[in-house]
Please model this.
Amino acid sequence: MRELKEKIMSEGIVLSEHVLKVDSFLNHQMDPVLMKKIGEAFAEKFRDKKITKVITIESSGIGPALMTAYELGVPLIFARKRKSLTLNSDLYISKVYSFTKQEESEITISRKFIDCSDSVLIIDDFLANGQAALGLIDMIQQAKAQVVGIGIVIEKAFQDGGRILRERGIKVESLAQIASLSDGKVRFVEEALA
Ligand code: G4P
Ligand code: NA
Ligand code: NA
Model:
């Protein structure tokens, strides 16, 4: 997506070989005009799939996921993160290990909001190692609902998440794919292949 890549080039800050900071338009301040275009782009890619729900994880997935849900005319559910382990039969619960943060957390969705009749589109801001997406897939499967695809705003293609998810046969659509962040520079996948 051209506007997104331009925004990454103009405002993204390469913090290390592994981490891109985009808090001026995605992770802290959000750009609503760009978010709307992101929602339109995801809706376009998945419109033929009869989606009934969009699912993301709080907090930074909510902006792009909400705009996508709006375009598709379906509800958005954001999984909640929590630290403590109290058993609760009203919740789907999955564990997510973050390699970036080196910590495990639990994510939950109320059983009220997904069931076996649902076809779910997962949306997230970043795809790194894929652990967040796998946690969401786990909960959607607990509900016996279908995962119809995954839409990612920024995929770090040099990490394993994209491969792991696509090897499972899941349709993964990323609006920007980063091939490398080395030498303090963002290189997109297309450039790397050119
Ligand atoms: P994974 O789910 O793909 O395995 O990713 P990982 O655990 O490594 O990511 C942990 C958190 O770090 C997630 O946010 C993810 O969006 C974010 N993240 C991963 N790589 C980058 C990066 O290069 N740049 C930025 N800005 N964020 C990255 P989170 O903890 O869920 O926080 P929130 O922002 O959604 O609240
Ligand atoms: Na994030
Ligand atoms: Na996220």
Q: What stands out?
A: The CA atoms of residues 82 and 170 lie 27 Å apart.
